Amino acid sequence: MHAGDQHAASELVPLLYRELHRLAEAAMRRERPGHTLQPTVLVHEAYLQLLQTERIDWQSTAHFLALAANTMRRVLVDHARAAKAQKRPGGHEQVELNSRVQVFEQQIDVLSLNEAMDKLAAFDPRLAQAVEMRFFGGLSFEEIAQAQGISLRTAKRDWVLAKSWLYTELARGSAET
């Protein structure tokens, strides 16, 4: 791909399909029961969006997976927005945060999480990217450090800071509503 081979991306993505499916399964485990998207559909939607993206300079597998996690987040948020638009006003799409990463022990609105992620990205883009990779993509701290070009210790510190920031922001949003 770095040498300009047009077909390299189309050859790489199928090789990573199993990993993409693992990411999608992890993302869907955090969704509410009875969600209408299935992991395979999420993979295919993300895959199609990744293929439509012009000129991505993938640095590594971790970088590709970080982009895939970001794309899956956008697919889930778009799906939640569409579902919310079909419901009566005040309806909320619930998503349970992964107990493995233990960010919160409650269910939250996926749109509120997306809003908080956007605010975090405005505050510190690297922290928001770390959350996307860890929470939405299930990447390890080592993979996050590699993708972001930072030390393992910094990746872990960023994760703690981002969780705290999001917890505060989501708690503030809950108190306002």
UniProtKB/TrEMBL annotation:
Record InterPro entries: HTH_Sigma70_ECF-like, RNA_pol_sigma-70-like, RNA_pol_sigma-70_dom, RNA_pol_sigma70_ECF-like, RNA_pol_sigma_r3/r4-like, WH-like_DNA-bd_sf
UniProt feature coiled coil, ranges: none
Domain RNA polymerase sigma-70 ECF-like HTH: 3-170
Pfam families in the record: Sigma70_ECF
Record keywords: Sigma factor, Transcription, Transcription regulation
Keyword Disulfide bond: no
Protein name as catalogued: ECF-type sigma factor
Organism classification: Bacteria, Pseudomonadati, Acidobacteriota, Terriglobia, Terriglobales
